[in-house]
Every structure is written in C-alpha cells, then in structure tokens.
Amino acid sequence: MEGFLNASLAVMSPSTLPFLVGGTALGVLLGAIPGVTGAMGIALLLPLTFYMTVNNALTLMVSMYVGAIAGGLVTAILLRIPGEPSSIVTTFDGNPMARKGQPGKALGYAVGASLFGGLVSWVALVALTYPLSEIAVRLRPFDLLALVMMALVLIAALGQGSIIKGLISGLLGILVSMPGTDPSAGNLRLTFGIHDLDAGFSTLAVLIGAYAVAQVMSDLIEVERKVETVETTMGSMWITMREWKEQGWNLIRSSVIGTWVGIMPGIGATVGSLVAYTVAKTSSSTPEKFGTGHPAGIVASECGNNATVGGALVPLIAMGIPGSVTDVFLLAALVIHGLQPGPLLFNQHPEIVYVIFAACLISHFVLFVIMTAGIRYLIKLMTVPVWYLFPIILLFCVIGAFADNNRVFDVFIMLAFAVVGFAMEKAGFSLGAFVIGFVLGPITEKSLRAGLTLSDGSYLDILMHPISGICMVLSAGMFIWSLRSQHKLNKLAMSQANEAAA
Predict the structure, then answer these.
(1) DSSP labels, 413-468
(2) How many helices (H) and strands (E) does the chain have?
(3) Long-range CB contacts for residues 15-20, cutoff 8 Å, separation at least 24
(4) Spatial distance between the Cα atoms of 150 and 462, rounded to a whole number of angstroms
(5) What 8-state DSSP symbol labels residue 189?
(6) What residues have CB less than 8 Å from 264, skipping those under 6 apart?
(7) pLDDT, tens only, 244-262
(8) Among 94, 82, 81, which residue's Cα sits nearest to residue 237?
(9) Using CB atoms within 10 A of its CB, is residue 51 exposed (0-12), middle (13-18) or buried (19+)?
(10) Cα–Cα distance between 323 and 262 in angstroms, integer?
(11) Pseudo-torsion of CA 340, 341, 346, 350, nearest 10°?
(12) Would you put residue 159 in left (φ > 0), alpha (ψ -120 to 50) or beta?
C-alpha cells in the first residue's frame, strides 16, 4: 500500500501530472477522430518516450490508452461512426438514442459506464494479477480457439434480422483477413500477384472503409432526410441515481466480462464490448429494445470495452505478453527504458508496477472530467450541416488509411470496402459482424494451426480438454437456441400477418 501511495503522489506531482492530463485528453481526441486510432498516436509518440523519465513515459502512454478507448464513443453515438473499433457495438444503441433527440443522455450513460468499467478492471488489475496471469499463461491454443468460436456465435446472435446472415458476415470478415503471408509456412496466399497485398489488407483501411465511409455513403443518399435533434444542456447528460440503480447488475456483469476478456492475450476490447452487449441482450426481459436506443446496450458496450484496459495490463505486467495491440507499444516503452515485463519486474522494479497502477486509476477520473466538461461542445456535432461534416470525416478517413502504412494503395482499399460495406448493409447483412470477424480472423487461424500442431492434426482434441470442450458445447447450444428463437419469432410474425390479412 505504501508503494502505491508513493507512486500516486509521483504521478500527481507537477512534473508528471501534465503528462497524465495531456495524454488522456490526446487519447480522447484521437479516439474520437474516425480513422485515427489511439494505438496509432501511441506508436507515433513512442520514439519521444526515449527522452522522458520512465515515470513520465509510462504515465503518458497508459493515460493515452485509457482516453483512446473511451474517446471512440463520441462519434459512435453522435455520428454512428466509431472512432475506435472497440466502439462499434456502442453504435447499436448509442446512435439510435442520439437520433431520438437524446444525445446528451446517451453520452451520459456511456461516460459513466466507461468510468465504472475502468474502475472495476483496475481493482482486478491490482488484486488478481498473479493468480489470473497463471491461468492465462496455461491456456492451450485450442482453448483460445474455442473462445473465439464462442465470439463468432455471439456475432451471429447480433446479426440484424437473420442469424445465418450474421454468421455469414462474420465468416466473410475472417476470409478477408486471410490474404497476405501465411503465418506458419511464410508463403504468400490469396494475393493474386499484387505485391501490395503481401502483408494483407490494412486493418485500418478495411475498418474505416467498411464502417465509416460506407456510413457516409448511406447518409449522402438520404441527405435530404432531416435528423431530429433537440437542444441539449450541460445537465442533459446527467443520469439519475434511480436510472443508474436500474443498470446496477448490468454495470457489474459487463465490467467483469470485459475484465476477463482483456486478460485473455490478443482478444481485445472489441470482443469485450461484443460479449458484454450480447450477454446483456440475451439475459434481458425486453431484448427487442436492444438496437433501438436502449440504455442497457450503451452501458454494456462501454463497460465491456473500457474494462479490457485494466485486464489487458495483467498479462503485460505479469508475463510480458501484450494483451492488445496498444499493449505492444507499452511493452516497447518498458524495453526502451531497460525494463523487462514479467516476474522480474515485480522483484527488481516494484515502483514501476505501482506507477502503472496509479496512472491507470487516476487517468480514469481525469477522463471523466474531460468528457463531462467538453461534452456540450461535442454534442454540437449533431447540428453541423452534413455537407460541412462529411468532407471533414472523409478527409480524416483518407489520412487515417494512408498514414497506417504511408501507401496510396490503402486508400483504394478503403474505398473498395466502403462499397462492400454499403452493399452488405443494403442487403441486410450485419456490418458490425463483418468488421468484428475481420479483427478475429488472425486469432482464429493462429490458434487453429497451433492446436493442430500440438494434437498431431486431430480436431477431436478440442473436445478432450475442459476449457475448450465446455466452450464448444456452449457455442453449439447458443447457436441452436438462437435458431429456435428466430424460428419462433418468424412463426409469430407470420401468424400475425395472416390474422391481419384475414
């Protein structure tokens, strides 16, 4: 406790506090801009940390991490364009609520849930690092594959309309992630002689095109449609204690889910948000309200994705294994300063661990203040004429797609997937399932190949171990249950239509 208190005082000292506040604010800004991710900003700042003290460097990067994950909710709610991939699920209910004339309330739920989820994950980070890291490091490849398979079934359940279409969208996203260099054999595949595809499709280009630019295309077609907005005040984002009490169990459950998903190396905030949202939907007594601007959907999504921040730091600190893409840059910052994450970090430099703990905690409170104080200006985005707003959005999308690899080719990829995303949405396929499947694709393939190598090519081995076996059985059960539920809904709708016709 004394070590943590000393670290907290060090983080709040005049020499370090500006890095924490500035890092959080910059993270929010980068997270809110479509096409410019927090991970990109952290990567650009990484060389600068070489000239900083280790306390300032880690404080800056951890606070940017916290700010970026939450910053994506702003455009996700106001414009239905997630600034971060992890905010995709927030668009499902956040944007409908904003379009109903309640942007302040939607942002209030999201900001409050972000703070709560972050604090719960911080408690887990401090209290459960040792035991949970031991469990995570013992996971077999097939265990991780089984968890991904569960996520795919959840994707199917989230599909708007047809569950089968949702699953097809997710599998199509995985297929799009496959072109490039075979991670096992090192051979090129599905590049069709195009050398720019040797490293596969740029993740940013695909996500920006399929989700952001496709949305702009849809809105341009309906440019004459007037978006209903209402005048909002600073107080419009405050949620009453009664309303928060109604979300109490949802807050706790979603935060725990997000924390656990974050601890699983390589899965990330997108899956944490997805799982938390789907569990909230399937366990709700009114699941039909989800997707129409339901507060429970916003709370579940934002608790889930922000709780992964603290969870993802667990394997990074305890084992030296980055829990997400952003954690890779945190790992690099530690190495730059001559520190090796893992058990030796606790033994040789416990003060560094406490600085990370303190920066993670304090930055969540700073985030809440920044988002609350600046929310009235962000809400004004809803009243900006679309002809002024769309060019700015497209400009940032082009910059984000190009800046990832400094290639014009990625801009064309972005435009191509904008057409794909636009066509999928018009045909009734889940665009969210597609982009989430694209993110999960590399994890799926890596786990499958590693598992087959260890089992001498036997697929049955996935059922022979407790974790993977239980997950696969649950996946099959959830899929069958989803199909039956949809069949019952279809029969009910058909009978109602027949009664109306009679």
Answers:
(1) HHHHHHHHHHHHHHTT--HHHHHHHHHHHHHHHHHHHHHHHHTTT-GGGGGSSHHH
(2) 21, 2
(3) 15/56, 16/55, 16/56, 16/59, 19/52, 19/56, 19/59, 19/60, 19/63, 20/59, 20/60, 20/63, 20/359, 20/362, 20/363, 20/366
(4) 13
(5) E
(6) 136, 139, 144, 147, 323
(7) 888 889 999 999 998 888 8
(8) 94
(9) exposed
(10) 7
(11) 80
(12) beta
- Tokens found for residue 491: 């029969």
CB-count burial class (<10 Å; 0-12, 13-18, 19+) for 412: middle
Total of domains in the chain: 1
What does the alpha-carbon distance between residue 10 and residue 21 come to, in Å, rounded to a whole number?
14
Q: Which domain holds residue 100?
A: 2-501
**From CA 178, how far away is CA 201, in angstroms rounded?**
9
Which three-class secondary structure state does DSSP give residue 55?
A: helix
Q: Rounded CA gap, 502 and 298, in Å?
A: 40
d(C-alpha 382, C-alpha 295), whole Å? 19
- Residue 85 CB contacts under 8 Å (≥ 6 apart), including other chains: 37, 72, 207, 269, 270, 435, 439
Question: What is residue 181's three-state secondary structure?
Answer: strand
Tokens of 138: 């013992």
Residue 484 DSSP SS3:
helix
pLDDT at 15 over 70: yes
Amino acid at the residue 442 = P
Partners of 181 in beta bridges: 188
Whether 384 contacts 393, CB under 8 Å: no
Q: Each residue of 360-418: pLDDT tens digit?
A: 999 999 999 888 887 666 555 545 565 666 787 788 778 777 876 778 888 898 899 88
Per-residue b or e along 4-29, where b marks 16 or more CB atoms closer than 10 Å to that residue's CB: beebbebbeeeebeebbbbbbbbbbb
What pTM did the predictor assign? 0.66
